[in-house]
């Protein structure tokens, strides 16, 4: 056996081993994420006679997965800051854009001042077609126009390739995919008069990955309490800008 064949074989074995490790790691934290989702508590704030209503609907980020208690989740913080506002949270773990459309279509007789969508992570992971994402955003926007013409805010996913659960070479693929999907949301939101809040950031600019702070939950997919606090400050700004009590 020639030296070239030996070296090539060794390289292939190393590449295969790295790939298997990355997939195993990805799967391990995936199971931890499922367990974390089952522990999370969905929180809403019902206020009879409230003059302002906010609807929050989306995936595990608005469900609160990863937070130690409901009040530290994104919606929990929103409730704390706006105690006089009715805040309805209809989020689900692992929600994708199709499921979001199904949920919003069930609310034809409801009226809201602000609707906040959290979406994109599952569509990035499952490689939902760009045209499908755009079409559903447009259809969702049409449904919201039947709800008292609310301000619509769409919070799109973080850079899932940069999450601690991700590892080379999967992280490279997911980084590109996250950026691509974030751009699709941004362009479609502009066309549909939707306020877009992208959580995507390049690895060296992601606030949850700066310094040595531990800002992720044990599943290495979702933020912990402090991490959610950082995201909340980004999401809170457009809500404050459009909510006058």
Descriptors:
single chain, 245 residues, alpha/beta, Rossmann fold, five-stranded parallel beta sheet, 8 helices, 5 strands, 48% helix
Provide an overview of this structure.
The chain has a single domain, classed as Rossmann fold, CATH 3.40.50.1110. The chain contains eight helices and five strands, in the order αβααβαβααβαβα. With 245 residues, the protein is an alpha/beta fold.
**Pattern of helices and strands:** HEHHEHEHHEHEH
Fraction of residues in H or I helices:
40-55%
Number of domains: 1
Number of helices: 8
CATH architecture designation: 3-Layer(aba) Sandwich
Mean pLDDT: 88
Largest beta sheet: strand ordering: 2-1-3-4-5
CATH topology: Rossmann fold
Q: How widely separated are the two ends?
A: 79 Å
Q: What is the CATH class?
A: Alpha Beta
| Whole-angstrom Rg | 20 Å
Low-confidence stretches: none
Total beta strands:
5
Structural class: alpha/beta
In short:
With 245 residues, this protein is α/β, with parallel strands linked by helices.
């Amino acid at each position: 056996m020639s030296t070239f064949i030996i070296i090539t074989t060794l390289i292939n074995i190393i590449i295969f081993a790295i790939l298997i490790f990355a997939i195993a790691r990805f799967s391990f934290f995936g199971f931890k994420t499922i367990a974390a989702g089952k522990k999370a508590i969905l929180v809403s704030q019902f206020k009879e006679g409230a003059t302002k209503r906010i609807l929050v609907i989306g995936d595990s980020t608005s469900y609160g997965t990863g937070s130690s208690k409901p009040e530290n989740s994104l919606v929990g913080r929103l409730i704390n800051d706006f105690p006089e506002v009715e805040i309805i949270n209809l989020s689900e773990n692992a929600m994708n854009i199709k499921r979001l459309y199904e949920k919003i279509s069930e609310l034809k007789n409801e009226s809201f001042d602000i609707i906040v969508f959290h979406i994109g992570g599952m569509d990035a992971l499952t490689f939902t077609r760009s045209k499908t994402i755009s079409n559903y955003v447009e259809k969702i926007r049409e449904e919201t126009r039947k709800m008292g013409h609310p301000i619509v805010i769409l919070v799109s996913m973080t850079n899932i390739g940069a999450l601690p659960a991700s590892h080379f070479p999967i992280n490279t693929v997911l980084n590109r995919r996250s950026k691509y999907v974030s751009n699709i949301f941004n362009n479609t939101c502009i066309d549909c008069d939707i306020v877009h809040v992208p959580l995507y950031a390049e690895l060296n600019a992601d606030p949850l990955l700066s310094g040595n702070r531990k800002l992720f939950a044990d599943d290495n997919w979702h933020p912990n309490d402090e991490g959610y606090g950082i995201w909340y400050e980004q999401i809170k700004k457009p809500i404050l800008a459009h909510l006058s009590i």
